[in-house]
Amino acid sequence: xxxxxxxxxxxxxxxxxxxxxxxxxxxxxxxxxxxxxxxxxxxxxxxxxxxxxxxxxxxxxxxxxxxxxxxxxxxxxxxxxxxxxxxxxxxxxxxxxxxxxxxxxxxxxxxxxxxxxxxxxxxxxxxxxxxxxxxxxxxxxxxxxxxxxxxxxxxxxxxxxxxxxxxxxxxxxxxxxxxxxxxxxxxxxxxxxxxxxxxxxxxxxxxxxxxxxxxxxxxxxxxxxxxxxxxxxxxxxxxxxxxxxxxxxxxxxxxxxxxxxxxxxxxxxxxxxxxxxxxxxxxxxxxxxxxxxxxxxxxxxxxxxxxxxxxxxxxxxxxxxxxxxxxxxxxxxxxxxxxxxxxxxxxxxxxxxxxxxxxxxxxxxxxxxxxxxxxxxxxxxxxxxxxxxxxxxxxxxxxxxxxxxxxxxxxxxxxxxxxxxxxxxxxxxxxxxxxxxxxxxxxxxxxxxxxxxxxxxxxxxxxxxxxxxxxxxxxxxxx
Length: 479
Prior knowledge:
By secondary structure, this protein is of the alpha/beta class. Helix content is 44%, strand content 19%.
C-alpha cells in the first residue's frame, strides 16, 4: 500500500469508531442506531458523510440558544409538572384517567393547562380564509402568521393583500413560511411580501453548507395570531386547493379552528420561538404576548408544539396516552395514516379492551402510494378489532382525534413518522364534553358516507396492490 494509504485507512477507521460511539450515545431508537452503524461500517465514505449531514441533531443546539436568548428554560428530559391550573380546576368531576393523562401531557410539553377558552371549528377554505382575513383586517397591534404552504394563487393573494393592508396602517406584521412550502407554484410568496414591505422569513432554507443537514426538517405548523388575543390553528395551508371549484364542488375537505382565551398565548409563544430561530429577531413580549384572560369559554386546553428540537416525541406520547385513557370510542381522521409500532400497539390494545376505534382516511390520496402503504399496515389493526373507513373524494385533509366525547386533539400532525419525528408541528388538546360532542356530530356524516374496510375487503385486493403496498410500507418510516 502506498505510504499515505495507511494514514487514510487509519483516519477513516477512527472516524467510524467516533461516529459509532456518537450513534450509541444519542440514538434512542435501536432500529435507527443499527441502521446508521451498519451504513457507517459497510459503506464508510457514504455512511460517514450521510451521518454527518443527516444523522446528527444539530437543530436542538440552535433551538437551545434561541430559548436562552429569550430567557426561557432549556428543554430537558425532566418530568416535573409545570405550574398552572389542574384539570379539576376547569372540570371538577374530571375522571381519574383524564387527570392522569393531563399530568402526563403537562410533564411532556412543559406547558400548563389554560382555562376559559373558546374554540370554534371552521370547515373548508372559504369559511376559514374569510375568518382569518377578517381577523387580519381587524388587527390593531400585531399579526403573526406561520404556515407550511403559502401559494401565490387566488387564495394566497387575498392573504398577501390583507397582510400588506395591516402593515400599511402601522400594525406589526411577521410572516414565517417554510422554505419548501414557499416555492409551491414556482412564485415565492416571500418575494411578493417583501416588495410590499411586510417582514417575512423562510424556515430552514437550503444552502450549500453544513446547514443542508437541516433541509429535511420542515415546519408543518399553521398558526395565525392577531393582537395576541385571537388565534387560528389546524391543518389548513394557504392555497386555492382549499377553495371550491367554479361549480361549487370542494376540491379538498379540511377543518381549521378559531381560538380565544389564554391558549392563544401558547400559540404566540411557539411562533415567537420559531421566528427568533429563523431570523434572530427578538419579538418583545410586552407587545406580542399580552396577558390574555377569559371566562367566556368553557374549554380547558393545552398547546402541543413538537419537533426534532424536542427531547421527547411529545405528540406520539400524548396520542398513546389518550388511547390508553379511552373507554368507549376513539375517532381518528387523518389524510396520512402510517403509525409506528408503538401507536399500532396502542390502537390494538384499545380495540381489544372493547373500545370502538374508528379510523377514517381518504380512499384516494393525493399521494397514491400512501393509500397502498396505509392499507398494508392497517390490515393488522382491522384483524384486531379496529374499524377502518375510506372516505370518498374529495380528498379529506382533516387531522382530528376525539376520545369518549371528552377529549379532542386537532392541529397539523399526521399519523406518520415524518409528522411525529421530523416535522415541526403544532396541535391543541381540549378537555370539554360539549366541544367533543360538537366535533363528534361534525364528523358523523363523514363516517356515514365512507366505505368500511372489512377483512374480506383486504383479502379481495389484487396481488399486485398487496405486493406494492408492502414495498411502500417498508419505506413508511421515511415517507
